[in-house]
Design goal:
Length: 275
C-alpha cells in the first residue's frame, strides 16, 4: 500500500513537472507583457483579454488567418501524399519480388540513417534549377514519391505482419494487386496509416528550418515562420501575443492526436514487432 502511494505521488509530481511548460504558455498569454518573465506563477496578476485578438491581426497586412491557411495548404498535401506514396512503396517491398529488391531496400534503409542536413544544399540547388523556390512544391512533390524512408519502413513492417493467405484468397476471388491492397490490406492497415498521418502532420506543422530555406514571401509563411517574425518587429516583442498565437498553433495537432490516439498507439505497438 505504501509503495503504491509513493508511486502515485511520484507520478503526480512528474506529470505536473512535464505539463508545467504548457500551462505556463497558456497562462502567459493572459499576462501583461512585462510580467511574463518576472514570475513563474501560473496565475496572472492582471488578466489581459486582448492578447488573442491583437495577436490574430498578425504582422503588417497579413493576419494569422493567412498564416493558418498557408500552414494547412502546406501540411495537408504533404501528409496526404506521404501516406499514399509510402503505403504503395511499402506494399511493393513487402509483397512483391523484383530484381535488386534487397539492394533497393538497403538503399532505402541507408536513407533512413542519413541526416537531413546532408542533403540540404543539393536539394536547394536542384529546386532552384527547377524554379520551385518560394513555393510549396519543394515540400509537396517529394512527398508524392515516398522520399521519407521512416514511413516506408513502418509500412513494410506492418504489411509483413499481415498473413499472405489473405492475398491468395483475394487472387482466388479475382482481385488484382491493386484491388488486394485497397479492398483487403488497407482496412487492416488503419493503425499504421493513422500513425504515419499523425507523425507527418505534426512534423510538417512544426517544421521551421525547411520553410525558412525555401519560402521567401511573407504572404506564404506558415505559422512557424510567422511566430518567429513577430520577435523581429519593433523595439519590444509583444510576448503575450506571441504566447497567444503559440497556444492557437498547437490546437490542430493536439486535436488530431486525441482523435487518432487509439490507432496511433496500436500502430506504434505493432508495426515494429513483426517481420
Amino acid at each position: 500500500m505504501i509503495v503504491r502511494i509513493i508511486a502515485f505521488v511520484f507520478l503526480s509530481l512528474l506529470g505536473i513537472f512535464m505539463t508545467y511548460p504548457l500551462l505556463w504558455l497558456i497562462s502567459s498569454s493572459f499576462k501583461e507583457n512585462n510580467e511574463i518573465f518576472k514570475s513563474l506563477s501560473l496565475i496572472p496578476q492582471k488578466i489581459v483579454m486582448n492578447s488573442y485578438s491583437e495577436g490574430w491581426k498578425g504582422i503588417g497586412q497579413f493576419g494569422y488567418s493567412t498564416f493558418f491557411g498557408n500552414t494547412f495548404k502546406l501540411v495537408i498535401p504533404i501528409t496526404f501524399f506521404t501516406v499514399i506514396s509510402s503505403t504503395m512503396v511499402g506494399y511493393g517491398f513487402a509483397r512483391f519480388t523484383f530484381p535488386f529488391k534487397k539492394f533497393f531496400f538497403s538503399v532505402m534503409l541507408a536513407g533512413l540513417m542519413l541526416p537531413s542536413s546532408v542533403i540540404i544544399i543539393p536539394r536547394y540547388l536542384l529546386f532552384n534549377r527547377f524554379g520551385w523556390l518560394d513555393s510549396y512544391l519543394p515540400f509537396i512533390v517529394p512527398a508524392m514519391f515516398a522520399t521519407n524512408a521512416f514511413f516506408i519502413f513502418m509500412m513494410v513492417q506492418f504489411f509483413r505482419g499481415i498473413p499472405k493467405e489473405l492475398d491468395e484468397a483475394g487472387i482466388i476471388d479475382g482481385c488484382n494487386s491493386l484491388q488486394i491492397l485497397t479492398r483487403i490490406l488497407l482496412p487492416l492497415c488503419k493503425p499504421a496509416i493513422f500513425s504515419a498521418m499523425l507523425f507527418q502532420f505534426i512534423w510538417a506543422w512544426s517544421d521551421f528550418f525547411s520553410p525558412l530555406i525555401y519560402i521567401n514571401s511573407v504572404k506564404k509563411y506558415p505559422l512557424s515562420l510567422a511566430l518567429r517574425m513577430m520577435l523581429d518587429l519593433g523595439e519590444q516583442a509583444q510576448w503575450n501575443q506571441i504566447m497567444a498565437m503559440s497556444v492557437l498553433s498547437i490546437v490542430p495537432p493536439v486535436i488530431l492526436f486525441f482523435t487518432a490516439q487509439k490507432y496511433f498507439v496500436e500502430g506504434i505497438s505493432t508495426s515494429g514487432l513483426k517481420g
